[in-house]
Structure formats: C-alpha cells, structure tokens
From TrEMBL:
<dbReference type="GO" id="GO:0006098">
    <property type="term" value="P:pentose-phosphate shunt"/>
</dbReference>
<keyword id="KW-0570">Pentose shunt</keyword>
<keyword id="KW-0808">Transferase</keyword>
<dbReference type="InterPro" id="IPR001585">
    <property type="entry name" value="TAL/FSA"/>
</dbReference>
<dbReference type="GO" id="GO:0005975">
    <property type="term" value="P:carbohydrate metabolic process"/>
</dbReference>
<dbReference type="GO" id="GO:0004801">
    <property type="term" value="F:transaldolase activity"/>
</dbReference>
<keyword id="KW-0963">Cytoplasm</keyword>
<dbReference type="GO" id="GO:0005737">
    <property type="term" value="C:cytoplasm"/>
</dbReference>
<comment type="function">
    <text>Transaldolase is important for the balance of metabolites in the pentose-phosphate pathway.</text>
</comment>
<protein>
    <recommendedName>
        <fullName>Probable transaldolase</fullName>
        <ecNumber>2.2.1.2</ecNumber>
    </recommendedName>
</protein>
<dbReference type="InterPro" id="IPR022999">
    <property type="entry name" value="Transaldolase_3B"/>
</dbReference>
<feature type="active site" description="Schiff-base intermediate with substrate">
    <location>
        <position position="83"/>
    </location>
</feature>
<dbReference type="InterPro" id="IPR018225">
    <property type="entry name" value="Transaldolase_AS"/>
</dbReference>
<keyword id="KW-0704">Schiff base</keyword>
<dbReference type="GO" id="GO:0016832">
    <property type="term" value="F:aldehyde-lyase activity"/>
</dbReference>
<dbReference type="InterPro" id="IPR033919">
    <property type="entry name" value="TSA/FSA_arc/bac"/>
</dbReference>
<dbReference type="Pfam" id="PF00923">
    <property type="entry name" value="TAL_FSA"/>
</dbReference>
C-alpha cells in the first residue's frame, strides 16, 4: 500500500520523506489555506523533492474552467495529479484531462456509485472520504470495501486513495481492505508507531542494561 501525506506543510512532508514514508502528497484548498502559501509556489516546492503523485485541486466549478486550471496545475511538474470534485463537471474535466495524459484524482467521493462513475471517466485515483462519513454516523471503511469489490469485479484500473483519514486504525483497516493508497495527515502517520508495550518493553530493557554496567560504544 502506498502512503500519501495529506498536507501542504513542506517541512512535515520533508521529514517523512527522509524516512521513506512518502509515496505522494495530497492537498486541497483548506490545506493550502492552512499552509499560508501560494498554491503554485508551494506545490512546485513539494514537487521539487517528492517524485510520486502530488495532488493539486482545481477550484472552478464548470468543466471548461476546471480543464484550464487543471492544465495550469499540471504544468507545475510531471508528477502533478489534478484533483477535481465528484460532480458532472468534475467528471467531464476528468475525462478530458486524463485523455490528455494527466493524472486525475477525483475527490469528495462518498458513495460506491460515485466511485463507479469516476472510474468510467478515466480517473487515476478515486478519493473516498472515510472520516467525513464516520462523522455523520455512516461507515467510511465499509465504502472502501465496497469500492474495492466493484473495481475488482470489473478490473477497473482506478486506484482507491482512501482520504479523510483520522486515525492510525483507519490506516491499518484500509490496508486490510485493500485500498491502493492511504493519504493521511503527518500526525496520523506518526501515531502509527505508538504501542504501550513497545514503550514499556524499552523502559525495562534500559533499566536492566544500566544494571549491567556495560557500554557498547
Ligand atoms: C484529501 O485528499 C482530502 O482532501 C482530505 O483527506 C480530507 O480530509 P478531512 O476530511 O480531514 O478534511
């Protein structure tokens, strides 16, 4: 499973990239706002050291404008994935941009039918939002499973990019279900390492080691 980092915070991406944890990056207008940076400038900087797909989202609402914005974003670097919303205009833009050879990430997916439409429109990635479904008392992980089944039934090549990931548990569950990619905030990726027995075990080893009076270096 690939790990994308869901942020436009360059320092946070670079830190995880040094650990080999970054197969790609996703951004959205809210994350650009949070970064306080210009979208073109920050996306270019991310692409200067991340070689995997970097999603940059269009903000137009009509297909012709989305296509123009998509082409401009795609010109930033060859590894840009143009992110379009799951609307009919978004799907039209997806069809055109993917036909021109650009990677397209169709975002704001909340149902299996929407994922089916995105695959038919030639999406490279579909982004189902796990956490936002959980927020309304629906089951975000169930949607990942449904899309996996549908895509496998018909051998769709669109990759399932599980988004709106809120916890380390979401990541492992998505991996078990078979999502192709999980995009998670840096805090969630960091939380994946935590286990109380690791901390307790290390503490015990350190105490016993001190009693030996030995040194390795
Ligand atoms: C990523 O592509 C999505 O925009 C993002 O995961 C949404 O996450 P949120 O629901 O935590 O805002």
């Amino acid at each position: 499973m690939k790990f994308f980092v869901d942020t436009a915070d360059v320092a946070a991406i670079a830190e995880l990239n040094d650990l080999g944890m970054v197969d790609g990056v996703t951004t959205n207008p809210s994350l650009i706002l949070k970064s306080g940076r210009d979208i073109l400038e920050v996306t270019k900087e991310i692409c200067s050291f991340v070689s995997g797909p970097v999603s940059a989202e269009v903000v137009a609402l009509t297909a012709p404008e989305m296509i123009k914005e998509g082409r401009k974003l795609a010109a930033i670097a060859p590894n840009i994935a143009v992110k379009v919303p799951l609307t009919w205009d978004g799907l039209k833009a997806c069809k055109v941009l993917s036909g021109e050879g650009f990677m397209v990430n169709v975002t704001l997916c909340f149902s299996a039918n929407q994922a089916l439409l995105a695959a038919k429109a030639g999406a490279t990635f579909i982004s189902p939002f796990v956490g936002r479904l959980d927020d309304i008392n629906a089951d975000g992980l169930e949607l990942i499973g449904d899309i996996r089944t549908i895509y496998d039934n018909y051998d769709f090549k669109t990759q399932i990019l599980a988004a709106s990931i809120r916890s380390a548990n979401h990541v492992s569950q998505c991996a078990l279900i078979g999502a192709d990619v999980v995009t998670a905030p840096p805090s969630v990726i960091k939380a994946m390492i935590s286990h109380p027995l690791t901390d307790k075990g290390l503490e015990g080893f350190m105490k016993d080691w001190a009693k030996t009076g030995q040194k390795i270096l």
